[in-house]
Amino acid sequence: WGLFDRQLGRSDAQEPDPEGRIPQWDKASVQEMKDKFTSVGLGPRQ
């Protein structure tokens, strides 16, 4: 997850990202997570 965090992290931002930019993992269903990753170009095996 360290690599994952570095790819997604923003060094230029001092404040949190706006609501909705990052999904709430504890509230999202499995299907919502799949849809989210597919929408950014990640398949289930990446």
TrEMBL record:
GO terms for biological process: response to oxidative stress. Gene3D superfamilies: 1.20.58.1620. Residues 1-31 are annotated as: Disordered. GO terms for molecular function: heme binding; peroxidase activity. It comes from the Eukaryota. This is Uncharacterized protein. The lineage of its organism: Eukaryota, Viridiplantae, Streptophyta, Embryophyta, Tracheophyta.
